[in-house]
Design a protein that fits this description.
This protein has 517 residues and is mainly α. Among the domains are: 137-300, no CATH class; 368-516, no CATH class. The chain has ten helices and six strands. Keywords: Coiled coil.
Length: 517
């Protein structure tokens, strides 16, 4: 709200505070009465007391100047900061409705004092305007004094009595309320139209307090038209002096002092008495009206105080409305930032979704390749099983051949004496055996090549298996089983090769033994 001006110890209103003050003055009905002090008084700011100088300071060093201190202000911890946007909007709407109600009440209160004013003044008290003399106004000291003599005299010097004054309330203004006789005559002859006052059909005033009409004066059969009486101004100029206040009129003393003036007639005496009654009644009516005017002025003052309170409340509501507006603007900015973050997150989510889709495609391709590798591995396993069964069949046939050769050797050993005779046959048999041995060697070489190819295929399958292991972790157990199977197969193949070599060595040894024999 306050910013340092530059010089140490001097502060001034910030630009935002000046703008707020201008807006409050524009919104007020009477901008001249709205000051910065009223706005600050209505704001929720609690000033903290600054450091005070002790009484002992400055005694030892009277010339030392006290450093100028500046009172700080605590920022009010308003509960509005904890509210959400929807709650702030609802609170703002409710405050706006309250502000509209207060403004309507202010309009009504401003229009009511105008309706209570009288069009025609009944006395000097009622002729005072509310705008010129607001109620209550202490230390006014205004006295209207007595009316001018030329206005109320009846052609000669009229003796005056002390004027009647209304009951005073506090520092009220006292005025003379008893008009002279001529004013009462004119008052009786004049028809009044008072706005806001109720009268009966005959013209009697109905009070708003008692709700009872004022009783009409008893005429006793005489003419009620005061303009039709027989007296004239010439008769009044004869020197007859009447009092302007109630009391016995000294007619006899007046006529004794003025013997040349004839005595008034009975009709004039009755008209004077009736005029006195009317005067008394009008005076009572004027007193009642003055009392009501005092009550209305008191009510007007109360209403003005209420208007001031409502204006202060309106300023407070405007200030709170400004706080709500700032809070809403701040929340809207936060919402905009959050929406920007949400948009960025949505864009990132879309990009990540595209990446996930690509990864899913790659995963499907890898899964397809794993399935292809598994199919190839199954085919290789099937072919390897076929080769193994074929090798086993060849081995069985070789064993049968070895058994047969063994029988032949036994028969040849049994018929050793016939060997010489059967040299040609033995040579033929030897050649045939050599050819068979060569064939067996070729078969062994073929089996070695097949074994080498199988090992190469196994190595290739192992490489593929390593690739499959890198691509799919889930098939690890299956690959381990296949590794175990390949290891067992290699061991079996090695055992079969060893057995085949042993068999070949045995056959060669037997042949060498046969030849040696």
């Amino acid at each position: 709200m306050f910013v340092p001006e530059g010089t140490r110890g001097y502060y001034q209103l910030s630009s935002v505070s000046k703008k707020h003050v201008t807006e409050v003055k524009r919104a007020a009905s009477n901008p001249q009465q709205v000051t910065v002090e009223h706005i600050l008084r209505g704001a929720d700011i609690t000033a903290t007391a600054g450091p005070k100088r002790r009484a002992s300071d400055g005694i030892d060093n009277p010339r030392a100047k006290r450093p100028r201190t500046v009172r700080g202000s605590e920022i009010s911890k308003s509960p509005l900061n904890n509210l959400r946007k929807n709650e702030l909007l609802n609170e703002t709407k409710s405050l706006q409705l309250k502000l509209d109600v207060v403004q309507r009440e202010l309009k009504k209160l401003r229009s009511q004092p105008r309706e209570l004013s009288l069009d025609v003044p009944l006395s000097p008290l009622t002729s005072i305007d509310d705008e010129e003399f607001p109620f209550p106004e202490p230390d006014n000291g205004i006295d209207m004094g007595e009316p001018e003599p030329d206005r109320f005299e009846l052609g000669g010097p009229v003796p005056r009595t002390p004027p009647m004054t209304p009951p005073q309330r506090g520092n009220m203004i006292s005025f003379a309320t008893t008009p002279p006789a001529r004013a009462l005559i004119n008052l009786a002859q004049r028809t009044w139209s008072l706005p806001g006052l109720t009268r009966t059909q005959s013209g009697s005033y109905i009070s708003d307090i008692s709700k009872q009409p004022t009783p009409d004066p008893e005429v006793d059969g005489l003419a009620a038209d005061y303009g039709a009486r027989s007296s004239s101004i010439e008769e009044e100029d004869r020197g007859v002096n009447y009092l302007a206040t109630p009391g016995p009129t000294p007619l006899r003393a007046s006529f004794s002092r003025h013997p040349d003036v004839p005595a008034p007639s009975v009709a004039e005496e009755l008209s004077r008495q009736q005029l006195k009654k009317v005067e008394e009644m009008k005076r009572m009516e004027v007193d009642a009206l003055n009392g009501e005017v005092l009550e209305l002025r008191a009510e007007n003052a109360n209403l003005k105080s209420q208007v001031a309170e409502f204006e202060l409340k309106s300023l407070n509501l405007n200030a709170r409305l400004g706080q709500f507006t700032e809070q809403i603007a701040r929340l809207e900015s936060q919402v905009a930032v959050s929406e920007n973050f949400v948009q960025i997150a949505s864009n990132n989510l879309q990009s990540k979704s595209a990446e996930v889709a690509q990864l899913r495609v790659l995963f499907d391709e890898a899964k397809q390749s794993v399935q292809t590798s598994q199919t190839a591995l199954e085919e290789a396993s099937a072919s390897f099983a076929d080769n193994t069964s074929r090798l086993r069949a060849l081995l069985t046939s070789a064993e049968a051949e070895v058994a047969r050769l063994g029988l032949e050797i036994q028969s040849s050993m049994a018929t050793c004496a016939d060997l010489q005779e059967c040299v040609n046959r033995a040579n033929a048999d030897n050649a045939r055996c050599n050819s068979d041995l060569e064939a067996e060697r070729q078969r062994s070489d073929n089996l070695g090549r097949d074994l080498h190819n199988s090992r190469a295929k196994a190595d290739m399958l192992q490489a593929r298996l390593a690739d499959v292991e890198a691509q799919s972790i889930e098939d690890g157990q299956t690959i381990e089983n296949m590794k175990t199977f390949m290891t067992n197969f290699r061991e079996q193949q090695a055992q079969q090769a060893l057995q085949l070599e042993n068999a070949m060595n045995t056959i060669s040894a037997r042949r060498r033994g046969r030849y040696s024999v």
